[in-house]
Amino acid sequence: MLKPGTLLHGRYRILRPIGRGGMGAVYEAEDTLLEGRRCAIKEILLGFEADPAYREQARAQFYREASVLARLDHPNLPKVSDYFSEGDRDYLVMDFVPGRDLRELIDEARESGRFLDERTVLSWAEQLCEALDYLHRQNPPIVHRDIKPSNIKLTPDGRIKLVDFGLVKLLAPDEDRTITVLQGRGTAAYTPLEQYGGDVGHTDIRSDIYALGATLYHLLTNTPPPDARQRFLKPDSLIPPRALNPRISPRVERAILNAMALHPDDRPPSIAAFRAELLGTAPPSPPAAVWAPPESPWEVLWRRHRLLALAALGIFVLALLITLMHG
């Protein structure tokens, strides 16, 4: 860990650590070239000390992909303003976002015996959808892969910020690797099944839809959902949201459960589609089809010509009655 007062890149003075993980840490720092500006600095340990060639390749990837993040500009995302390397560490400099993260608000609500208001949560969800839609529309698309309450901040002016790019993945057509800035695989309760494969697993924008659905589940129920591996082994382990918080509307419950489908093909195809379903601006998804055995040829004939058959039967019965009456 870097000590307070450490000067990085001849410019950024460390104030305090904000968070720490297995691949590095995040610090609050002051920019000595712009008086009064505070920033967040994400530290990434390169590792792989025994393989200099791989370290060189990883660092080149970091610079290439950090430059992509630096071009992003959206009100619900922190602005990446600088990136550099010192020793065996890479650093990403972003806006420091004041406020409280949503995990803190969940814990506060649970401790006071209440739930967060659905309308408030939906207003946050709408802002998150705007940020994710922006990321997914980049060329190539950017998948965040680490959406969770502790990575979302509510600023003093009421704006939502998705603050950590820790697991971002660029969906380049010729490259399917996690970008260096994002070491790791996400947090279990919010991670879809396909993401457990790491770089081998196939993740796309629908992985973010799952994570957002799981985050909304936690926000509205005060309970984190079971992880996807547990749900795969025990399908009934996911308790419907309204069973935990009856004040959740059926529409919102349905949208969350659709987003959290284990198979990506069963989720909404885009953030826009999920947002429409969540906010009620589009018809709900049709219910899943129920399997039925194939029809026999006689059943097909009956279904297609039943009116004609019934008419013929009626004529036959009428003729039989007339015959009996005059017999």
TrEMBL record:
Coiled coil: none annotated. CDD domains: STKc_PknB_like. The keyword S-adenosyl-L-methionine does not apply. Residues 12-279 form the Protein kinase domain. InterPro entries: Kinase-like_dom_sf (IPR011009), Prot_kinase_dom (IPR000719), Protein_kinase_ATP_BS (IPR017441). ATP binds at K42. SMART domains: S_TKc (SM00220). One of its GO terms (molecular function) is protein serine/threonine kinase activity. The chain crosses the membrane at residues 307-326. Pfam families: Pkinase. Keywords: ATP-binding, Kinase, Membrane, Nucleotide-binding, Serine/threonine-protein kinase, Transferase, Transmembrane, Transmembrane helix. This is Serine/threonine protein kinase. It comes from Thermoflexus hugenholtzii JAD2. The lineage of its organism: Bacteria, Bacillati, Chloroflexota, Thermoflexia, Thermoflexales.
